[in-house]
Amino acid sequence: MTRRALAAVLGVALLALSCARSDAPADPVWGKEPCAHCAMLVSDKAHAAQALHDGDRRYFDDIGCMILWLEKNKANGDRAWVRDADAGGWVDARSSRYADGAKTPMDFGLQAKRGGPLGWDEARTRALAKERNP
Q: What proportion of the chain, given as a percentage, has pLDDT over 90?
């Protein structure tokens, strides 16, 4: 195999790997990335969230902000992640469990927590209700 052919094969392999990872959660630049809903800087890791919509990644300072943004943009089929309060890593937002009553940046009170009493639909309903009745 010539050097040029080897370089082409390696280039295609690297491109394929980078594309495969583009739908995985990624940290924002903490303290510098604005929330896509309220524009507050995303700095509190414990309550951060993110969504991948039409190939663009959006970050949120509060799970409630992400829920409202997903509703407004009719983006409920897109990928979304929240920070797990127990483990600290990113978890799928729709399969996560939630607790209500936490002190969060925008006062929605939702926190992703293993064994939390709320599923995605209940968390979504609570965030929408708080937005309508602050």
A: 70
Counting the structural domains of the chain, the total is 1
Domain that holds residue 51: 25-132
Residue with tokens 């309550």: 47
pLDDT top residue among 51 and 8: 51
pLDDT for 90-103, tens place per residue? Answer: 999 999 999 999 99
For the chain, the 3-state helix, strand and coil shares in percent, each to the nearest 5, are 35, 20, 50
Span between the terminal Cα atoms of the chain, in Å: 66
Residue 66 belongs to a domain: yes
The letter for the amino acid at 30 is W
Q: What is the pTM of this model?
A: 0.81
